[in-house]
Write a structure and sequence with these properties.
Two copies of one chain form a homodimer. With about 400 residues, the first copy, chain A, is of the alpha/beta class. Chain A has 15 helices and 15 strands. The model of chain A has no long low-confidence stretch (mean pLDDT about 95).
C-alpha cells in the first residue's frame, strides 16, 4: 500500500451563475472558451454541489469552512474572528474579535463618514500603532489594520461575552453605545464603549489626522466595532486529516479561514484577490506548495469581483484566464494527485451578489471514472456521475480518492 | 438591489406514477400531450423530488407541509388539527382536534353504517347546530361539519392529552370506548367518551334524523371521533419567509394546511377538489392572487382522484387538461416570477393509492439554467440539473431563486 496521494482544491470564487439574457440565456461558463477546464471535466468525474445546503446562500467564509470539511453551522462564530485571522491576529479561546471601520466623527460623536474618506495604508498602519498596549475596562485590546479603511479589534481577557450590539451605527448618525444583549455581556459592552471613546481621544489629535485635515482629507479619528464573535474552538486541519496544508489566496478573509484551521498562508503576488491577479503565477505557487505539502487550498477571487459588478462579458474573459491557470495545473500536477475544481458559491451577474444555487464541481485524478461530461459548466457537471453533493462532503470524498481514508468497520 | 421576486408552487396532486401496462409500460405523464408543461421543462431546470424522503409514502398533509418548507417530522401532529383547520376551526396551543364520522348506530351502540348512509349537507350542517355549546367532562367541545359524512371535533380546556384510542371502531361492530394510552390522557378519554354518548342522545331524536328515517335514509345519530392530535406550534409562513401568501385549493385538508401556516385561503369555483374542477379558472385566480401577494400555493386534486380510481386513461386526460392550466400560467406569469411544477406524491394507478416514489419537478424563471430536459415526466425530469432533492429543500431553493435569501456568513 503506497502512501496517500496529494490533494488540491481550486476555488474559483463566485464562478457559478444563472442564465444570462445578454449571453443568449446561457451562463458565462457555457459561453467561455476553456479547453483546459473542459479537459478536467472530460477526464474526471463531475457533479453539482450545494456548498452549504440546497438554496442556502453562502458567504465566502462559511463556504470555505464547508469546503475544508467543517460544518459551518457548528464552527462559524461570526465574521470578526475570521477577519482578524485574515490579518494575522489569531485569538485564543475566550477572546472576542470585532471588525472595525476607521470613521470620521465630529466632537459630538456624529458620524460624518463611515469610511473616513476611504482612508488606507500607510495612514491606517500609522494610526493603529498609537493604540498599542491599550487596556479598556481592564481588558486587553489589540488592534490591527486591515484592507483600506478596515481594521480588527481583539478583546482578550476573562469573562467576555460576544452578545453585544454594534458601536457602528451603520448609518450617518451618532455613534451608538454598545449594549449587552445578555447580562453576562455587560463587561464586554463596557470594554467596547471605552475602546471607542479612547480611540477617539487618541486618534483625533494624532499627527496623521492633523496632516489629513491640512490636506483637506477626512481624518480617521475613531474606530467603530461591529460583528463581534468569539474565536471558534476548531479542530486543526492537520489533526483532522493528518496532512499538512497550504492556503494560496489573495483575499484576507480566505487567508483568515486558512489560518484558523492551521493551513500555512503562502505569499501571493501583489494584485492577488482582485481582477488584476496573475493566475498563472498563482497556479505555479500552488504547484510548488504541493511539492512540499499534502494539501493545497487555492482561491481565485477575480470571478467573484466581476460578478458583483454584474459584468457578464468580463466574467467570460476572467473564465478564459482561469482556463490558462487550469492549463498550468494540468501540466504540472504531481502524479496521482487528486484535484477538485469548484466555486465557493454562485454569484449570478443578474443578482450582483452570492446566491444559493449549486456550483459545478469536477474531481480529477488518474483513476477518476469518466462520466461523459464534456464541459465544465453548471448544466454539464450537474449531469455527471457525482450527482448532487454537499460542500462538507467534498473533503471526505477527496480524502478517500487520495487513498487516505480510514475504514469504518472491518 | 431590487425587491425579491414572486413565487408560485403548482401541486398537481398524485401526478407521478409508475409504468402502466395498458399504456405500454409508460407513465400517464409520458403518454399525455402536454406542450405547455413541456415548455416549462424545456425552459426551466428539472429534477426529481422525494417529498418526504426516499421511499417514504406521504399523505397530502405531510407532503404539503414539506413543500412549504416545514419538516413534517417536527410539525405534523396528526390529521385531526389539519382537518379542523380545513373547515376553518383553528385551535389554540393545548387544544386537541379529532376527525369524526357521522355514523348510524342502534340503541345498543352497534354501528350499522360508518357513514350514516353517506349523509351530507345540509343535514350534517343542521345536526351539528344541535351540538353547539356542548361541555363534556368539563371540557368545551366544538363541532363543525366537513365534507360529506365527515365532521371535526375540537376539545378545548386545561390538561388535555392526545394519547387516546379512537371511539370509531373502524368496522361494523360496537362503538369503542376511548382509552388513555398514558395516565395523563384519562381526562381526554373521558371527554371523548362523554362526547360520543351525548352526541347520540342529542342526534338520535333530532328532527333531521326523524325525517331521514321516514324517507328510508339512515340517520346520522352519532359522531365517532378518531385520529386526535394537538394543534401544532408552527412558525407562521409570513414570519418565516417575510412573504404574504395565498392558498388556492379546493380540498379541505390542503386549505387546512394553508390556514395553519397562515396563508390566505382563496375562494375557488364550485367543483374544485374533484375531477370536474375548472383548472383554467383556478389558474386565473392563482395569477390574480400573485398580483397582490408574494407567494401562491396552488393545488389541483383531479389527478389524484382518478389515480385512486386506478384509471390510467382518465389520468392521461386529466394531465392534458392540466396542460391547459399550464398554458394560462405560462401566458400570465409576472416578469421574473419563479414557478415550480410538482406533485405532492405519486399515486400510481396500479396501486390505487399514494406511493413513496419521487415526483417530477420543474422550476422555471427567466434566469433558470436550461438543462436539456424536453418533457415534464418522471424519467425526463430525473435527468435534469436539479438532481434528486427533498421536498423540504424546495422552498429554500425557490426563495433563493427569487433573490430573497439571507446570506449565511460574509
Amino acid at each position: 500500500m503506497e502512501a496517500g496521494k496529494k490533494i488540491m482544491i481550486v476555488v474559483m470564487d463566485g464562478l457559478g451563475d444563472r442564465a444570462v439574457k445578454e449571453l443568449g440565456y446561457k451562463t458565462p461558463l457555457q459561453v467561455a472558451k476553456k479547453p483546459n477546464l473542459d479537459w478536467f471535466a472530460q477526464n474526471g468525474t463531475s457533479g453539482s454541489m450545494d456548498v452549504i445546503g440546497p438554496g442556502i446562500r453562502p458567504g465566502s467564509d462559511t463556504s470555505h469552512l464547508a469546503l475544508l470539511g467543517y460544518d459551518p453551522y457548528e464552527v462559524y462564530t461570526g465574521r470578526g474572528p475570521f477577519e482578524a485571522a485574515g490579518v494575522g491576529l489569531i485569538g485564543r479561546k475566550g477572546d472576542i474579535a470585532f471588525r472595525c471601520n476607521f470613521a470620521t466623527v465630529d466632537q459630538k460623536m456624529n458620524v460624518m463618514d463611515r469610511r473616513a474618506g476611504r482612508i488606507k495604508e500607510p495612514d491606517t498602519t500609522e494610526l493603529v500603532k498609537a493604540l498599542e498596549g491599550l487596556k479598556v475596562a481592564g481588558i486587553e485590546a489589540v488592534v490591527k489594520d486591515a484592507t483600506e479603511h478596515r481594521a480588527v479589534l481583539l478583546l482578550r481577557g476573562e469573562g467576555l461575552d460576544p452578545h453585544v450590539t454594534d458601536a457602528d451605527p451603520h448609518a450617518i448618525t451618532k455613534v451608538q453605545l454598545s449594549r449587552p444583549l445578555v447580562p453576562e455581556a455587560q463587561r464586554t459592552a463596557d470594554a467596547v464603549n471605552e475602546f471607542v471613546k479612547r480611540s477617539f481621544e487618541i486618534l483625533d489629535a494624532h499627527p496623521v489626522n492633523i496632516r489629513r485635515r491640512e490636506q483637506g482629507l477626512l481624518p480617521g479619528n475613531i474606530l467603530l466595532p461591529r460583528g463581534g464573535g468569539p474565536f471558534p474552538d476548531i479542530e486543526p486541519f492537520e489533526k483532522r486529516y493528518g496532512m499538512k496544508g497550504s492556503c494560496v489566496a489573495g483575499v484576507s478573509l480566505i487567508k483568515g479561514i486558512g489560518r484558523v484551521v492551521g493551513l500555512e498562508i503562502v505569499d501571493v503576488p501583489k494584485g492577488s484577490g482582485g481582477t488584476s491577479t496573475d493566475m498563472v503565477a498563482k497556479a505555479r505557487i500552488a504547484l510548488k506548495e504541493l511539492e512540499r505539502k499534502d494539501f493545497v487550498l487555492m482561491n481565485i477571487k477575480a470571478s467573484d469581483v466581476v460578478s458583483h459588478d454584474g459584468d457578464a462579458r468580463r466574467k467570460v474573459e476572467i473564465i478564459e484566464r482561469l482556463d490558462g491557470m487550469a492549463k498550468v495545473l494540468r501540466e504540472g500536477l504531481p502524479e496521482g494527485a487528486v484535484i477538485a475544481f469548484c466555486a465557493d458559491h454562485c454569484t449570478p451577474v443578474s443578482r450582483f451578489d452570492h446566491s444559493g444555487d449549486p456550483v459545478p464541481l469536477t474531481i480529477y485524478s488518474e483513476t477518476s471514472i469518466k462520466d461523459g461530461v464534456q464541459s465544465y459548466d453548471e448544466v454539464s457537471c450537474a449531469k455527471g456521475a457525482l450527482g448532487r453533493i454537499r460542500g462538507k462532503d467534498l473533503m471526505p470524498i477527496l480524502y478517500d480518492r487520495a487513498d487516505r481514508s480510514e475504514k469504518f468497520g472491518a
